[in-house]
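Methods — Computational structure assignment.
A single polypeptide chain was analysed. Its primary sequence is given first, followed by the predicted tertiary structure written as structure tokens.
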Amino acid sequence: MALAAKTAPKGLGQDYVGIKIVSGEELGKLADEMERFGRERGKANFDRDAANVRQSAAVVLIYLTENKPLGLNCGACGYGRCEEVQLREGPEFPGPLCAWRLLDVGIALGSAAKMASLLNVDNRIMYRVGTVARQMGLVQGAIAVGIPLAATSKNIFFDRPAK
């Protein structure tokens, strides 16, 4: 999965996609922090996703290592020129982020999830995992997303109650 994410196509061939695998004790700490984060901020489903992380064998984190604009001056981020972008910290992530760099992360996520699927490993792309991993300092970057992994007789990432 990490190899699939690493070799996924990226804008101008520039690699600003980071990958980290979380397992063992670190996985339990991540789940604990997800529960705390959701409870303290009154945000739904962090506890539900934390339960999935706790049941998982590992989590693959894919993140944007640096928000360096591609340089197209396309305006997709809300600014007319890349040099004008003023980053502000939001409640969970900074922004605005270069849309093309975000697409790079998305393509890497899709490539990693596809590889897990080809290997019959149950997985689910989860924003909440990345939010807390970033808050904990497990990864350094503008945005992070997690892919928990499990190999059980029933896929643990479906039939989950939403709040």
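Note: Residues 124 and 158 are 9 Å apart (CA to CA).
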